[in-house]
């Protein structure tokens, strides 16, 4: 039972990332009708926002400490981050330690701006083009973005640690009545799961309970009619593109302590997340979230040694096998709408 619970937790962890990226993909497709293969690159850019902030906060000034000497007896040169000089050693060290959560404040405006530029500068010209054209141009854009990241940050993963307060593990088994140390799980992975839940709930609440969200949902159902009412639906859809970019970016920021950022991480998550969108149903926001967690859990169980010993490599293909089965039995996906991508 403890092994099963650990795999469920692992699945929720992976599923959180899949669900957040798939949610942004579905927002863009549902509002603009664009199949955005550059969405994984937005996840990557968010992760590198955390890397960038960490590098900025650790910019240091070199000073001479006469009280400390090297092995030759010379005064020791000490590097001290500027933030520690500005705010004091304790506050400055805390700011550096909490670089990843603080990167959220950087990522939101950056990702919204990136989303606006992408939508206004390129994607708006492909609204009425076939989906194949949209896939090709956004896939090409994703390659360009990852090569830019590779040029400035290099090809190697860049470790970006979580705050010290969340570097340990939590004994979840004791809470559930198991023996101590039977179910140990990292704090940050639990933080990521709850963070994903807050973002998902926030997006759904925004669409469900605000006037802006209700207009967007109406536009998703019947764009022409909403436009005839005098509402600038195109402007609202552009804002939704920025929101979708921010969701993907925040998912990337908080995932950096789990997976060290690298220039190809966007592509790694994009393919799986697009499968999640198709399984959940093109254009269905609840379907994207449900499929994200479902496939994350299935992938986690498929990675167990007991399963891989019986079916070698099953962990690499389980998501695609499930997608085939679901699409054969439910061609529109779990919660897909009639008429979406059926023309």
> Helical segment tally?
15
The name of the CATH architecture is Orthogonal Bundle
Spatial strand arrangement across the major sheet: 1-2
Overall domain count: 1
> What is the strand content?
5-15%
The CATH top-level class label: Mainly Alpha
Uncertain spans: none
Name the helix and strand elements from N-terminus to C-terminus, one letter apiece: HHEEHHHHEHEHHHHHHHH
Task: From the alpha carbons, calculate the radius of gyration and give it in angstroms.
Answer: 23 Å
Structural class comes to mainly alpha
Distance between the termini: 47 Å
Q: Please, what is the average pLDDT?
A: 84
Give the fraction of residues assigned to helices. 55-70%
CATH fold naming: ABC transporter involved in vitamin B12 uptake, BtuC
- C-alpha geometry: globular
Largest sheet: 2 strands, antiparallel
Number of strands: 4
What is this structure, in a nutshell?
The chain contains 15 helices and four strands.
What does it look like?
This protein has 15 helices and four strands. The chain is mainly α. The termini are far apart. It has a single domain (2-329), classed as ABC transporter involved in vitamin B12 uptake, BtuC. The mean pLDDT is 84. Belongs to the binding-protein-dependent transport system permease family. LivHM subfamily. This is Putative ABC transporter subunit. It is found in: Cell membrane. It is a multi-pass membrane protein.
